[in-house]
Amino acid sequence: MGPRRVAATPANSAARMPGQDPESPRHAASPSERAANPEDENSRLTDLVMNLEEKVSSLETEITVLNSELEDCRQVVQEMASAFGGSGIADIRREMEQMSIQIGLLQRAVSNVPAVAPDAGARLRIPEPKAYSGARDAKEVENFLFDMEQYFLAANVEDEARKVSTATMYLTGDAKLWWRTKYAEIQANQVRLDTWALLREAIREQFFPENVEYNARRALRKLEHTGSVRDYVKTFSALMLDIRDMSEKDKLFTFMEGLKPWARLELQRQRVTDLGSAMAAAERLTDFNPENRKDRQTTPSPSQSKRAGRDRSGVTPIEVGETASPTLRAVHRAVLVGTSPRRTSRGRRRRAVDASYATAHIDIGTARRNSC
Description:
Layout: H1 10-15, H2 31-36, H3 38-83, H4 86-112, H5 138-155, H6 160-168, H7 174-187, H8 196-207, H9 212-222, H10 229-240, H11 248-258, H12 261-270, H13 275-283, H14 290-298, H15 302-308, H16 326-338, H17 345-371
């Protein structure tokens, strides 16, 4: 007897391997099975065809999406190629080369830096500007503003708001009270002082005294070179700080006219052409005062006073009192006449010696007569 066929049951179909599933496209039904169940076979084939159509449709959709993405990629590549064409790529290469050179230089610099950190105290210390108390003096105001600008430059302060806050910290006294009022107005949006230029002009408008230039011009017109040259130059420079609109020719003319004649002639001889060179040349001059020299010549020195009693011949004349005899007085007068400047030096010496000799003999004779 042949082998007995067992009918398919759900348990048996579940126990089958996946590759032996009759609905699987890999499972080929026998002709006897297809002949026994033609309707089942048709339905199975219909299901297979529908599954295949669905898979093909999904594949076509995926292919369409891939094609669109590929087209987008191509467009992006073309745009990048057009943007970074031959010149763009060359520029990028040059930039990369420059960056590589800079990196090499930085590496060398880092390698040359000493391992020990520098001392913080060795760094430059910037002196702080002098505080301004609100004095209504032109030089005080200008010096404060100038010191603040130099401080900003040395401390590398570039932000305008920081400049304003730093400058206001150096206001004291009346200037601090003025700034408190201005600060309240700034908070109320009544005024704007958010830059150093605006704050500088506000300080000048508030504290700069009136008629400064007029008073400086009046003082400059009366200025004369009466003392030393350096004092004159110093006073002239201080007055010129308050005069802003005088031309260079007028400055030079006014400076030259105030000098003494000898100093003016010396500067004219040096052919000075501007105020700066004229001041420098004037400060190099040695003070010369003819009046002082005249006084020194007329006032005799102690040595000259001692020599005044001597004759030019070097012999001191003998003084004769009122008690001397008439003969002695006559000889003394003869000696004085003989020592006149109109005589020669040799004659003066001889007469002076003779007079001294005669005077001595007269004194001896007088003494003998008195003793007798």
